[in-house]
UniProtKB/TrEMBL annotation:
It catalyses: (2R,3R)-2,3-dihydroxy-3-methylpentanoate + NADP(+) = (S)-2-ethyl-2-hydroxy-3-oxobutanoate + NADPH + H(+); (2R)-2,3-dihydroxy-3-methylbutanoate + NADP(+) = (2S)-2-acetolactate + NADPH + H(+). This is Ketol-acid reductoisomerase (NADP(+)). NADP(+) binds at Y15, G16, S17, Q18, R38, T43, G124. Its cofactor is Mg(2+). One of its GO terms (biological process) is isoleucine biosynthetic process. The gene is ilvC. Belongs to the ketol-acid reductoisomerase family. It comes from Stenotrophomonas panacihumi. Gene3D superfamilies: 6.10.240.10, NAD(P)-binding Rossmann-like Domain. Residues 173-318 form the KARI C-terminal knotted domain. Mg(2+) 1 binds at D181, E185.
């Protein structure tokens, strides 16, 4: 194996949630890391303050053995066509943290390139924090195109540099990563969970209960439950809740999330698999995000947000966290 495969020179394009964490962990793991960013872009100051050599993407990728594409998914096609494809060196490796553009054929990578995926299963801030304390966030990885014969080794080297090998590395495909990631965030994590909380809040408030109490019940206390899931699955939650809560769980949970919900989850999955979701999302993005902005505003204006803001201001244990928090982007998780 040549020295390139052992310690590839890495350029990270994009310095948001994932980009910052990847660049810092890889540097601390001994890699030579350059950051590619548009001059004057919003994260350039941060990358420079963190001590990186920052260059415009076209320059930054020219000598790289491996280019990690860590910009928002919707700008990657244009970035690849206009900047990466004309400037990456022959035989280099193109790495993604999400398979969307390659899997749905929006990017058709040059034939001389290796193309791999390394997706940490956690937000950038956690990828960095775990690394700093000597641990790591599990990563899933895949090879789409192996021109050099070393693509798998490169993906594993990169995942190791992120700290992922200290936790767990699981091999996947671009198809599986893309479809499961989209499904998770839509049906369960982001879409499903927030809709469940809003509906629960509305149900209590419309029945005349105080919004403050409704907030504590359906949003605030969810953290306790999710922490138990995280630590020991549903088994651990059942160990910690009362018998009354368990009985209510068994008889009422399936009334709320029933076979109809599961059938609609399957429709969501089908739209993801056949490309309908991605086609609609690209059209929405290209139209200037009219519906996205409307939906987002409705979430921000929901009454649970007003009462939540007041109640959280009294949670002294949160104030310290907010002050220490990373910029908004680095908290993004999905
Ligand atoms: P982000 O929005 O936090 O950061 C994007 C970065 O790209 C910023 O530095 C921005 O300035 C820069 N950028 C934007 N347009 C650019 C352009 N045209 N040229 C160069 N730089 C540009 O993005 P993110 O959430 O870190 O997502 C990056 C990738 O990681 C995506 O493919 C995403 O699906 C994937 N991913 C994200 C998470 C997560 O926790 N957020 C988890 C797993 C995978
Ligand atoms: Mg995602």
């Amino acid at each position: 194996m040549s020295s390139n495969e052992q310690t590839p020179r890495i350029t990270v394009v994009g310095y948001g949630s994932q980009g910052r964490a990847h660049a810092m962990n890889l540097r601390d793991s001994g890699f030579d890391v350059t950051v590619g960013l548009r001059p004057g872009g919003p994260t350039e100051v941060q990358a420079k303050a963190d001590g990186f050599e920052v260059r415009p993407p076209a320059d930054a990728v020219r000598e790289a053995d491996l280019v990690a594409v860590l910009t928002p998914d919707m700008v990657q096609k244009k970035l690849y066509e206009e900047v990466l494809a004309p400037n990456m060196k022959q035989g280099a490796c193109l790495l993604f943290a999400h398979g969307l553009n390659v899997h749905f054929n929006m990017i058709a990578p040059r034939e001389d390139l290796d193309v791999v995926l390394v997706a940490p299963k956690g937000p950038g801030a956690l990828v960095r924090r775990e690394y700093e304390i000597g641990r790591g966030v599990p990563c899933i990885w895949a090879v789409y195109q192996d021109k050099s014969g070393h693509a798998e080794q490169l993906a594993l080297t990169y995942a190791g540099g992120l700290g992922g090998a200290r936790a767990n590395l699981i091999q996947t495909t671009f198809k599986e990563e893309t479809e499961t990631d989209l499904f998770g965030e839509q049906a369960v994590l982001c879409g499903g969970a927030s809709a469940l909380v809003q509906a629960g809040f509305e149900t209590l408030v419309e029945a005349g209960y105080q919004p403050e109490i409704a907030y504590y019940e359906v949003l605030h206390e969810l953290k306790l439950i999710v922490d138990l899931f995280y630590e020991g699955g549903i088994t651990r939650m059942l160990e910690f809740i009362s018998e009354t809560a368990q009985y209510g769980d068994y008889v009422s949970g399936p009334r709320v999330i029933d076979a109809g919900t599961k059938a609609r989850m399957k429709e969501v999955l089908k739209d993801i698999q056949d490309g309908t979701f991605t086609k609609n999302w690209v059209a929405e993005y290209e139209a200037g995000l009219p519906n996205y902005k409307k939906y987002k505003q409705a979430d921000l204006d929901h009454p649970i947000e007003q009462v939540g803001k007041q109640l959280r201001a009294k949670m002294v244990w949160l104030n310290g966290q907010a002050a220490a928090a990373q910029p908004a982007g680095s908290q993004r998780a999905a």
